[in-house]
């Protein structure tokens, strides 16, 4: 590059994709030069721009894998629930009942409640989906998943739970379950998504949460009076499935009615 060329480039700037660089920010080598250079260190694999590509690939792979699953319900619950616990048996029933109602079952793909719901779905001959996550203590995809997708990033995985589900059934669980539950409620409350039903199974476990929401949280005006009603509490797995199915149909009908009304021409 001549001196005049260099001065001209300094003024016009150096385009690096959508990024404009000037002055000392202009690199000595082009992107192609770095790409076609010989072997070098691999630190670039761990930098943020490359992570964006990984994130993008997770969304593309998730959308591609799940786009044709049809009606589905996400089931959340603890990975620590043992197989001889009542909650495990209830989750197996939830998975089975959902398949009987025509739904695919989506879980986090791990052990405990997730395994139980996948087991019920698989044994009922339905589509049993697992959305796994990379964790230091992750035990891998459970054996009852017949369509599994693994994720590095929680937020990409959460998108799949919401995008491809017509409702949620939440069994007893810990921080991960709370996170998924309140993520869903927040999206509905803020109208980031169209409404969908959320059922909690296990009154002994969840009643205190509802009392807190309807008590101190509502008393301080932190939620509206209708917000706690977004949750339906039951001890019967079959009732949870029936609620999700019936309430989902009601919400779909309301949405269709609103769309039809919006499409009507204004009166002259």
UniProtKB/TrEMBL annotation:
The family line of this record is: Belongs to the LOG family.
Pull one GO CC term from this UniProt entry: cytosol
What protein does this entry describe?
Cytokinin riboside 5'-monophosphate phosphoribohydrolase
Q: Is Hydrolase set as a keyword in this record?
A: yes
InterPro entries, alphabetically?
LOG, LOG_fam, LOG_family_nucleotidases
- Which PANTHER family did the record assign? CYTOKININ RIBOSIDE 5'-MONOPHOSPHATE PHOSPHORIBOHYDROLASE (PTHR43393)
An individual GO BP term: cytokinin biosynthetic process
- Show the GO MF annotations: cytokinin riboside 5'-monophosphate phosphoribohydrolase activity
């Amino acid at each position: 590059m001549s001196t005049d060329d260099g001065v001209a480039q300094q003024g016009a700037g150096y385009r690096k994709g959508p990024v404009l660089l000037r002055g000392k920010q202009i690199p000595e080598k082009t992107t192609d030069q770095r790409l076609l250079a010989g072997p070098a260190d691999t630190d670039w694999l761990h930098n943020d721009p490359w992570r964006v590509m990984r994130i993008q690939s997770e969304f593309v792979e998730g959308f591609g894998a799940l786009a044709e699953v049809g009606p589905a319900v996400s089931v959340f619950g603890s990975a620590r629930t043992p197989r001889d616990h009542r909650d495990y048996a209830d989750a197996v029933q939830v998975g089975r009942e959902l398949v009987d109602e025509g739904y695919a079952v989506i879980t986090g793909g791990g052990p405990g409640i997730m395994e139980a719901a996948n087991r019920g779905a698989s044994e009922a001959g339905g589509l049993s989906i697992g959305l796994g996550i990379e964790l230091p203590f992750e035990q891998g995809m459970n054996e009852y998943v017949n369509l599994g997708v693994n994720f590095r990033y929680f937020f990409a995985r959460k998108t799949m739970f919401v995008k491809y589900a017509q409702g949620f059934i939440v069994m007893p669980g810990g921080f991960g379950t709370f996170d998924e539950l309140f993520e869903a409620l927040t999206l509905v409350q803020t109208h980031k998504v169209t409404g969908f039903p959320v059922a909690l199974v296990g009154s002994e476990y969840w009643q205190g949460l509802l009392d807190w929401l309807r008590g101190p949280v509502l008393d301080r005006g932190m939620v509206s009076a209708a917000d706690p009603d977004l949750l339906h509490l039951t001890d019967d797995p079959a009732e949870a499935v029936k609620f999700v199915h019936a309430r989902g149909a009601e919400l779909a009908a309301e949405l269709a009615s609103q769309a039809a009304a919006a499409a009507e021409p204004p009166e002259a």
